[in-house]
Structures are given as structure tokens and as C-alpha cells.
């Protein structure tokens, strides 16, 4: 009986590990696609600003404070700066969120789990009692005042009645 339960448990564990691995891999792939799309969008935005800078014949930066640059004013950086930004963005690796690395770590941990018959043990928590066959508790119920006496280790008045022993 225990061997059957252990085999069923082993199969369930392997199925759950396979399912969790697949789910985590799909999550990683989705996060990679999102990161690639963000990178492509950034490059397209810079290319668009370069096109505007070329049309306006702006080669040198026209603004002093670069931290104030928005998508609408990026062309003011000049075509030279925008070309180098495109080259820089194209060679940069993808930027991932901390959740990506946490998912990757979880996936590696799950892949390293090895479920074998040797590592699966079955324990029974709920069993029908076989012993004692006869009732081993007191035949008569204890008077309620005994509980008071037991708790205080001395006799005392229980609800106005004297404890009797």
C-alpha cells in the first residue's frame, strides 16, 4: 500500500515540477520579449529624433541641460549625438527587471530537484485506532469541581459549593 502511494506521489511531484518548469520558462520568454520590445522602441524613438535633427540641420547640441530632454525635444541633441546614441543602444544588452532574475533563479532551483523513489517517503497522519480495544478512560465522569481543585492544587469553593473528595 505504501509503495503504491509513494509511486503516485512520485508521479504527481514529477508532473508538478514539469508544469512549474514550463510555466517559469514561458514567463522568462515573455519577459525577454518585453525587454527586446522596449529596446527596439527606444532605438526607434532615437532614430525618429535623428530624422528630425537631420531635417532641421541640427548637428550640434542646442541645449545645455540634457536631463531635461524629452521625446519631443530629443532632436535638439543634434545628429552627431543621436547617431552615437543609436550605436550605443544597439550594442547594449537587454535590461531585465529583478523579477526576471528571481524567476530564473526559481527555474534553476526547480530544475535541480531530483525526485526518485528513494527520496519519496509516505507518512500516515490519520489512521483508525486499533488499540485499545476496551475503553481505558474513567467509567464515571469527574465532578466539575475537581477541575478547580486540580488547577489550584488546593480545595476551594466552586460556585458556592464545597468541593467533595
TrEMBL record:
Highest taxon above the source species: Bacteria
Official protein name in the record: Regulator of length of O-antigen component of lipopolysaccharide chains
Species in which this protein is naturally found: Salmonella enterica I
Lineage: Bacteria, Pseudomonadati, Pseudomonadota, Gammaproteobacteria, Enterobacterales
Gene name, Swiss-Prot/TrEMBL: wzzB_2
Amino acid at each position: 500500500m505504501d509503495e503504491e502511494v509513494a509511486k503516485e506521489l512520485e508521479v504527481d511531484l514529477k508532473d508538478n515540477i514539469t508544469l512549474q518548469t514550463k510555466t517559469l520558462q514561458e514567463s522568462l520568454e515573455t519577459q525577454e520579449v518585453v525587454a527586446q520590445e522596449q529596446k527596439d522602441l527606444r532605438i526607434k524613438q532615437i532614430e525618429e529624433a535623428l530624422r528630425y535633427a537631420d531635417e532641421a540641420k541640427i548637428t550640434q547640441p542646442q541645449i545645455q541641460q540634457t536631463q531635461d530632454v524629452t521625446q519631443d525635444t530629443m532632436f535638439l541633441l543634434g545628429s552627431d549625438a543621436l547617431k552615437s546614441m543609436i550605436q550605443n543602444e544597439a550594442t547594449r544588452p537587454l535590461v531585465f527587471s529583478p523579477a526576471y532574475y528571481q524567476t530564473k533563479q526559481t527555474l534553476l532551483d526547480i530544475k535541480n530537484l531530483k525526485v526518485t523513489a528513494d527520496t519519496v517517503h509516505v507518512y500516515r497522519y490519520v489512521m483508525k485506532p486499533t488499540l485499545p480495544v476496551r475503553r481505558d478512560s474513567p467509567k464515571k465522569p469527574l465532578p466539575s469541581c475537581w477541575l478547580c481543585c486540580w488547577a489550584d492544587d488546593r480545595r476551594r469553593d466552586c460556585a458556592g459549593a464545597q468541593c467533595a473528595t
